[in-house]
Amino acid sequence: MPTKLLEKGTASGARGPGAGGRNRFGRGEGAVPSGQAPAARAHTAVMGLAFALAAIAMLFVAFTMTYLGHRQEGDWKPVPLPGILWLDTAILLASSAAVEWARRRLGSGDPRGLRWGLTAAGTLGVAFLAGQLLAWRQLADQGVYLASHPHSSFFYLLTGTHGVHLLGGLIALGAILPGAWRGAYSPARSTAVTLVAIYWHFLTGLWLYVFAILLWQ
Prior knowledge:
The chain has 217 residues and is an all-alpha fold. The protein has helices at residues 2-14, 37-70, 84-107, 111-141, 150-182, 191-215. It is found in: Cell membrane; Membrane.
């Protein structure tokens, strides 16, 4: 019996920590150490966001090239831009500032500042979209619709596409807001907040670009 037990122990030892390329913690030899896993996930998320932003930027560049091409046509008519778009621009800039303030407060270890900054940014984002809808309503009251002429079509296309992406930003903001109120984020756990802030700043810059194109009639 002792001989059999020794033989079993030897066989078990041969299949022990190094068997099958697995260690005593159940990870493969090539597995990412637990301390590096969050960093790897954060890097993947940042790269994914970078590709998404590049795709959005290329989409709007394509819109712009088509827009500028149609400007040379004889049926081009200027669209009277609603004055509320100026207020909307100020609202979105304030929203971007609130997101940045929230991000920096998190970096300083101030969860209360994070909560209120993100809440303010989301509220201002909703106000921006409401202003966009009001601008569309004002144009419709003047008889300017999507299919009225090429310029009106591009106005609705550019502002509408930007609005859809901003709505996506609001959804992302809404996804991290409960965690901010629960105190789930910290300077060492801030990737989600940073990604949302980058996306929000990108949309703010994109709106300034779109607004400048629309002003240049």
